[in-house]
Design a protein that fits this description.
The complex is a heterodimer of chains A (627) and B (102).
Chain A lengths: L1 H21 L5 H28 L6 E12 L2 E10 H24 L6 H20 L3 H19 L6 H32 L4 H7 L5 H18 L8 H4 L5 H10 L4 H8 L1 H6 L1 H22 L5 H22 L2 H28 L17 H15 L5 H15 L2 H30 L5 H5 L10 H16 L11 H7 L10 H28 L7 H8 L4 H48 L6 H22 L1
Antiparallel strand pairs in A: 1-2
Chain B lengths: L5 H21 L3 H26 L3 H29 L15
Classes of the chains: A mainly alpha (627), B mainly alpha (102).
Chain lengths: 627, 102
């Protein structure tokens, strides 16, 4: 069982190393297969670990396996260890399973790209890092995984390094994430200081003994990391730009796995957050704000991938909300179903983009439904799931979160509830705006240009993973039917006991409202599409939304410009006149003095002799006279 | 103690040293310069021995022997340099040998 977990962790690393070391000796396809197969091996390992864990009794499902002691400093030591429990095994299955499908899909999508081998090496590195993050048995290993996924994300966003926008987006993602990494690291340092350990179990035992300030600071540090990694307000601006990367990367890293790492951290460290209720509430509030803001911005975007990116932010907002009010099971459940349907949406978007020769602007799309029937069906499944229409997976997970917000009571709970319901309406609006713009209406010029009779919708390596995810997105939600059967929630509850639980009545009442709102969104979007107008009609609001509420501009004015101005001022007033000139002066001064002194050295022996004799005379006089 | 007072020796040594120093400073032939240097060294030796005799111990005399050894070595090198200059057909004039000026 634990062996399966180790195999799961090591297999993608082996794949990445193999592709890197083999270099150009293997063909591009081979590199793709190595990456795909090692990821599926990881999935098999995760499956073995999961089944082993499943077979064990309730309450025994927690295994810590240590390879060796990695760091030792006095009493403090860090071991290379993995923690296998219900939460981590679920995450392992999602990461390696969805990851394997997406890597496989990449083989079709990246076909013919110049540097496929590098791409697949990065993908394997990412899968390894993400597994490291979720399997880590202590917070330091988690931080390492945290940093490595950031690196892999940076490398893959900037994969097309000849595109300046891609390079800029990669840098932006890295910098924004670095802010979160720093707060996370500071939180860990404080934990080491106060508790002397970073092991989850050791830390959680001691949380109650810590002062309120300490716990709050630690929780804030962790929350900062989670907010940056999961692209929540205020550190969210990197995610839409990250869409410059290849589409499978967006599907894997910026939808299904990495961006949900923040949610995983909130759930994993739930004892710390429960000891700091204010910070936990802050997480829920940030989630609610993000889900609303991202939802409205998604209404005006033209880039198919950016719309989906904003919807990702919005859905992660739901997960933060759930983790913030203590509905951990639903947070992870939504994480899982979101991984299915959002990866599905990105991959169908990828099929469309691939089909249209790289075009991402939805204004140039339209009428694709009869030309790409299977893609259309898959996208529709993803859209229905995202909008929370019954039987599709998003319905079960999202409504659970909304109901839990209601059940948590008090003013905050009801406010979050209202925000989440508004979010449901927005989700329906932007999802179906996108759906109708891409698949309905008259075929555009571009679409006609790329459509030929009898043409396949894409290579099989792309269509099969899309099909599998389509099935998962359809039925994946059936793991939780409130009041009837809730195995997924019970499974997660063993690791993170929820602090709030909606009654069955609340659940179904909320579902009714949320589904109605989703359907309203659908019909409004359909009417707008049929009438050929947008959902947001006011040009003023449109402009504000198009600038994404001016977050980028604000950060530019608040941080970048002052920093740049200070730098320029320092260069002009300190560096150039003081530091540089002083060094120059020392140099030229020494040269001048040297030139003067050199004249004394005439090379004439007799002059030297006279000088010595004269000096001796002077010395004698001085000694005699002064004494 | 027999013989002249130590002051006389010192006067002779001073005259010898002065002649040597003037020779070094004024003559241009390297050979003469070398000879003048020897004069100065020997003037120093004379003072050493004179004082040794006055004090009645042997330290000064031993030191004079050491100075002689150094002087012999110095002459060997100095003459070697002069021979080398002659072989290269350089003018035997210390004022001309000033290639090391700054």
């Amino acid at each position: 069982m634990i062996v399966g977990a180790w195999i799961c962790l090591v297999a993608p690393l082996a794949g990445a190393l193999a592709i890197t070391l083999a270099g150009t000796r293997i063909s591009r396809t081979t590199a793709g297969w190595i990456s795909t197969l090692t990821t599926f091996v990881a999935f098999a390992g995760a499956l073995v670990a999961f089944v082993g864990l499943w077979a064990e009794g309730h309450g025994d499902r927690e295994h810590l396996s240590t390879a060796y002691t990695w760091l030792e400093s006095g009493d403090f030591q860090v071991e290379l260890q993995i923690l296998l429990d219900t939460l981590s095994s679920t995450m392992m299955l999602i990461v390696s399973g969805v990851g394997g499908l997406i890597v496989w899909y990449s083989m079709g999508y990246m076909e013919g790209d110049e540097e496929e081998r590098r791409y697949f090496a990065y993908m394997s590195l990412f899968v390894f890092s993400m597994l490291m993050l979720v399997q880590a048995g202590n917070l330091l290993l988690l931080l390492i995984g945290w940093g490595l996924v950031g690196l892999a994300s940076y490398l893959l966003i900037g994969f097309w390094h000849s595109k300046p926008e891609a390079v800029a987006a990669a840098k932006k993602a890295f910098v924004m994430n670095a802010i979160g990494d720093v707060t996370l690291a500071l939180g860990l340092v404080l934990l080491i200081w106060e508790t002397g350990t970073l092991e989850y179990l050791g830390v959680f035992e001691q949380v109650d003994g810590l002062s309120t300030t300490t716990v709050n600071l630690v929780a804030l540090g962790l929350l900062g990391g989670a907010v940056a990694k999961s692209a929540q307000i205020p550190l969210h601006t990197w995610l839409p730009d990250a869409m410059e990367g290849p589409t499978p990367v967006s599907a894997l890293i910026h939808a299904a796995t990495m961006v949900t790492a923040g949610v995983y951290l909130l759930v994993r460290a739930s004892p710390i957050f429960e000891a700091a209720p204010d910070v936990q509430a802050l997480a829920a509030i940030l989630g609610a704000i993000t889900l609303l803001v991202a939802g409205v911005i998604a209404l005006v975007q033209w880039d198919i991938k950016r719309v989906i990116a904003y919807s990702t932010m919005s859905q992660i907002g739901y997960m933060f909300l759930a983790a913030g009010i203590g509905a951990y099971g639903y947070a992870i459940f939504h994480l899982a179903t979101h991984a299915f349907f959002k990866a599905l949406l990105f991959m169908t978007a990828g099929v469309v983009i691939h089909h249209l020769g790289g075009e991402q602007d939805i204004r140039k799309m339209g009428g694709l439904r009869p030309l790409m029937p299977r893609t259309h069906l898959a996208f529709l499944v993803g859209a229905l799931s995202l909008a929370g229409i019954p039987i599709f997976s998003g319905f079960w997970s999202k409504d659970g979160i909304v109901a839990a917000a209601f059940a948590s009571g008090d003013t905050l709970g009801y406010t979050l509830y209202a925000a989440a319901l508004t979010g449901a309406l927005l989700t329906g609006l932007y999802t179906f705006r996108l759906y109708f713009a891409v698949f309905h209406g008259k075929p555009s010029e571009l679409v006609k240009e790329h459509s030929h009779d009898g043409q396949r919708e894409g290579p099989l390596s792309m269509l099969i993973p899309v099909g599998v995810l389509g099935v998962l997105a359809t039925i994946g939600g059936l793991l939780v039917i409130p009041g009837v059967w809730e195995p997924f929630l019970h499974w997660i509850d063993e690791t993170a006991e929820p602090t709030v639980k909606a009654t069955v009545g609340q659940d179904y009442a909320t579902s009714a409202i949320a589904v109605t709102l989703g359907l309203i969104g659908f019909f409004v979007a359909r009417r707008a599409s049929a009438a050929g107008r947008q959902i947001v009609t006011s040009p003023g609001i449109w402009r504000v939304l198009e600038h994404k509420l001016y977050f980028d501009e604000a950060y530019d004015a608040l941080f970048y410009r002052p920093a740049a101005a200070i730098s320029v001022a320092l260069r002009r007033n300190v560096e150039e006149p003081v530091v540089e000139r002083s060094l120059d002066e020392i140099g030229t001064g020494t040269l001048q003095v040297g030139g003067e002194v050199a004249r004394v050295q005439s090379g004439l022996l007799r002059t030297y002799a006279i000088a010595i004799a004269f000096a001796v005379c002077v010395l004698v006089v001085v000694f005699v006279a002064v004494r | 103690m027999d013989g002249p007072d130590v002051g006389w020796y010192l006067i002779v040594a001073a005259i010898l040293f002065g002649i040597g120093a003037l020779g070094v400073m004024m003559r241009r032939s390297p050979l003469i310069v070398l000879l003048s240097l020897e004069l100065m060294l020997n003037a120093a030796n004379l003072t050493l021995i004179a004082f040794a005799r006055q004090q009645g111990d042997l330290d000064g005399q031993i030191f004079a022997l050491a100075v002689m050894a150094v002087a012999a070595a110095e002459v060997a090198i100095g003459l070697g340099l002069i021979v080398a200059m002659a072989r290269r057909r350089m003018l035997l004039d210390v004022d001309q040998a000033s290639a090391l000026r700054g």
